[in-house]
Design a protein that fits this description.
Elements (H helix, E strand, L loop, with lengths): L3 H10 L2 H11 L6 H24 L7 E5 L7 H6 L3 E6 L2 H4 L10 E2 L12 E7 L8 H11 E12 L18 H12 L16 H10 L3 E8 L15 H5 L2 E8 L1
Parallel strand pairs: 1-2, 1-4, 2-3, 4-5
Antiparallel strand pairs: 5-7, 6-7
Length: 256
């Protein structure tokens, strides 16, 4: 399932210390988004840099990285510091302006119909977006479409049956997404930001692996839990167990 040379560098970085640090930062998603997204941005550029270097032996210098569902552009600074041309795509204008950031290359558009020509970017990346899309595998195919032959497509998404699958409505989502949403509204007096069936969907590890192995447009290079130490990556190989314990799955494909 995984070509060791592609994940070797990131595997050395994926330690228990990193996992604990990220978990601490991620607690601030609702209360202090700058902390949450700052940690996620740093981790994302390390992930993409390591995977690309493992695949090609080269850095990100001079490459175009398309971030599908890039929101207001929290990742722009770190990718540009790595030498990449960073282009975020976001369908929701309120999200694009949510943090008061200005990203010159930002594009408003849907991941289901990316406004880019075929084979126009070196790396297409999406972090924690697929679970918010009603048809994530159509989005994944779009990501492959716009990636250059030989380029990387990296899709990282939150698994529904994992501890964070319900986002702010968790852990009650294990009793049903609609139940969890109603409970959240009853206790907080407002709808959750991520509404089940509207902006949050049930997506599993097996779904992503099935798509990645079956697509005619890309070759699967790696699949692993994004936030786990590398010694726990074996969990992806165990059906059913992976749905509950992997939490966030990364699939890495080379564009054919």
């Amino acid at each position: 399932m995984t070509k060791p040379e592609v994940t070797r560098s990131f595997g050395r970085r994926a330690t228990l210390k990193r996992s604990v640090r990220l978990l601490g930062d991620f607690r601030h998603e609702q209360s202090a988004p700058d902390i949450f997204y700052g940690a996620l941005a740093r981790d994302s550029v390390e992930l993409i840099t390591d995977l690309h270097k493992g695949h090609t032996g080269r850095s990100l210098d001079g490459l175009t990285v398309l971030d599908v569902g890039g929101g207001p552009g929290y990742f722009a600074e770190v990718f540009e510091a790595a030498g990449a041309r960073y282009v975020p795509v976001e369908p929701d204008p309120s999200e694009m302006h949510a943090a008061g950031l200005t990203v010159g290359a930002a594009v408003r558009g849907s991941g289901l119909a990316l406004p880019f020509r075929d084979g126009s970017v070196d790396i297409c990346f999406s972090s924690n977006v697929a679970e918010h899309v009603s048809d994530p595998w159509s989005m994944a195919e779009e990501m492959l479409r716009v990636t250059k032959p030989g380029g990387l497509m990296v899709l990282s998404y939150t698994l529904w049956w994992g501890p964070f699958g319900g986002h702010e409505t968790g852990p009650w989502h294990i009793f049903g997404g609609e139940y969890a949403a109603r409970r959240y509204k009853r206790r907080n007096g407002r709808e959750p930001k991520n509404r089940f069936g509207v902006s949050l969907f049930e997506v599993g590890a097996s779904d992503g692996l099935r798509w990645a192995r079956g697509t005619a447009n890309g070759s699967l290079l790696a699949a692993f839990p994004r936030y786990h130490p590398s010694w726990a990556w074996w969990l992806v190989r165990v059906p059913l167990v992976r749905e509950f314990l992997v939490s966030n799955l990364v699939v890495v494909l080379e564009k054919r």
